[in-house]
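Chain X:
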Amino acid sequence: MTNFGPKARLAAAGAVALALAACDDRGGRVDAPEPAPLADLSAMEALPYAEPARVAYREPAEAYAWAERAYGLQRAVYDTPPDYGFGYGDIEPLAWETGDDWAMYAEPWDDGYRYYYYEPGAAYPYFVRDDDYGYGYGAGGVLVAVFDAGGRYLPVDGVYRMAPAAGRYYARGHDLRSAARRAPRIQVTDRIWAQRAPQVVRTADPWLRAARDDRQWRAWRGRDQDRELRRFEPEAARRAERTKQWRERDDRREAAAAIRVNQDPRRHGAEIRQQQAERQRLQVERQGAGDAPRREQAQRQQAQRAQAERERLTERHQQAQQQRQQADQQREHAQQQWRQAEQQQRQQAQNQQAQRQQAAQQQRQLAQQQRRQDQQRAQQAQQQRQQADQQRHQQQRQRQAQARSAEQQGQPAAGRERGGKDPGKDSGRGRDRKD
């Protein structure tokens, strides 16, 4: 039998293995492909044994949410240092946790990583991903959907074929979660992250590309209106700020290294060789090599991988510098636009304030004019009253003068008031006519 690696053997077993008795979520029998021979299941010995996952297949319209949450979480922490590492047997998985307690673990596997995704407070993963497939789990570890490396949604028979691998991954995810909670946390230094970052990025990129490129997945995301992705936007912003600080420290370290090279190239070369030897020694100790040939082979492989990682890291650093420059240009352009918009808003506010002041001034002038008119009308009314009073007084004085004049002439004032006739004269005339 050909000696495949753990990853290849597990993928081959997952493609042909099947639970002997598959039931749907209602407890009834469903049609499923024939089970794989028991000999093929031995390829899964890289993981501890667990029962095949129960299957409750869900249509894409519903189950894409599992993959979308895994994509959103990985995108939010992409290319950022982990929060900590922890011991798990002879390996050290990496852990990323969001501010609201979502978590992602990266378990070293062959020359890459396997990823486990957890909801807040959950003891089991809701999604597990290796290089070939992604597995979505419902309540109780029921397998609801499987996605291939390109983001394609597997049909129901494919989901049943992957049930044995999904069961082992689900159990493994629980063990990792328990170990992470009880084991001491290991600080992931900048030096360690610089070594591991290329592998983490290399194993994360295919899943991120799949989520962006798969047409049906994109169509579902459009209908969902990015609801699953928006929950991780605050974490992405927080991680971006941390990454910026880490890169600034990295740039300062590179500048200091360049200075050391200019000052004493031989000394800097010796430091690099010492660091390489230290990394090789640690790797050999972790592998627990028992004999000298195996240690030498492990050292050669580690040296080759370290060289490849340095080359990839250098290339990625150059790309990151270009991206930072572009980001700085975009940020400067955005700030300039913001300043222009702010200046326009200030100018508009000033114009509006000037208009309000002018309107208030006009209202004050109108009010003053109205008050002056009211005062003028009041003065005119007062003058008219005074004139009327004077006229009454004058008429009264005239009547009084007339009355005094009539008394002096011997005429009763009352007679004069009745027509100015003399009663004596009238009576005399009467007597004359009578006589």
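Chain Y:
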Amino acid sequence: MVNTLAKALVKAIGSAVVFASLSHAQTEADRDRRLAELERKVRILDPSFKADEAAFDDRLAALEKRIDEVLARSGSPAASTTVSASAQPLLPKAPLEAISVTGDYQQSLEGETRLPVSGYMDAHFNKAEGEPGRGDFHRFVLLFGHSFSDRIKFWSELELEHALVEGGEEKGEVALEQAYLDFLVKPWLNFRAGLVLSPMGIVNERHEPPSFNGVERPVVETIIIPSTWREMGAGITGDLGRGFRYRTFLMSALDPSGFDAEFGIQNGRTGGFESSFRNPAYAGRLEYAGVRRLTVGISGYTGVSSGDIVAVTPRTSIVSFDGRYSFKRIDLRGLFANTWISKSGELNLAMERLTGLNPNVGSQMRGYYAEPAVHVFPRRWRNDLILFTRYEKYNTQQQMAPGFVPLPEFNRSSLFAGVTFKPNADVALKFDYVFNRNAGSAIRPLNGLNLGLGWWF
């Protein structure tokens, strides 16, 4: 019995190591709650074990040490498979578990490379004020990876949106969100090529439903920074040590015919379909996570946008700053982003001649948000209840080209108040109510109630 429990706990400790390596893709609270659950299992096996409030790595090392001691006493051969946290980096060496959508890979306990299969899904119910409610199975996403060798890895993400696809009907789409190869050279220098996510902001690379509060993704990270923004590209990634990591890519440019005042540059994404490399764009991100529970980042993008519909080629540039911090049971998250579009006046006139409608594209777009959240349940509980509020301010006509006047209805703000309940770290039941405002009086945006169910595995 002891030996069976010990082997199960070795697997659980392996899962904790995997989770530590994926902590950038989950909340700090989720990671700590999983570790607390492992400590509870160890106490079942060895009641004399007592957890303390040390740092995560120290607590994990204490768990592994105690498991080594128990296995040594029981004579289990599995003792040789555990990893010493003090002697080894936090590498994924567990049986197949859920893995990060940003492309981490796993091995079996025997060192054999395993095929990672993962996924995430979310279903929404949205009801705008005075309108009937609508349900939508918004996303069904499967992720597949393969290790050709220790240094060549493949990762992909295939998404079905809105549950159904029919020819000629606006009922959904099947989209490839990622598909790339990693060539691993050194921790600080690796190469990536294929269909890659632009490393902008917080949510674009980490968009699994349990990783953020609110039923819908933040508005600023949807129209000022496009959401699930992927392009054909190639570049380098790496961990510089001391908490610094980076990603930078040469990638296909945006299509300016999709720009407008309502959705910003969101519809300028090409998604890897006939992407323009006439003037490749550059995107990069530098993150610092050297202080426990703190992550800050700066992202940048610049490129000459071009397409087949319109001859105007404006340069589009974006800079964003973001941060996440946890203190005890309080989480803080925020982001600021500014977008510049050159030749926006020429683009507006050209699109008006082509379509008869002026898209009113601004020469500058700006947005920011701040989100405090409180974890109600104690950290040692397996369940989590998060109360949050998020204020977003976004203006897609922050500045206009000479001769064009900004419209007040595009100077908008949203205040979200809601709750996220997690019966498991990878499952989230969400509720929020949003108060929408703009600077105009002619057109008033509607408030709304949102319900969501999201999970990943």
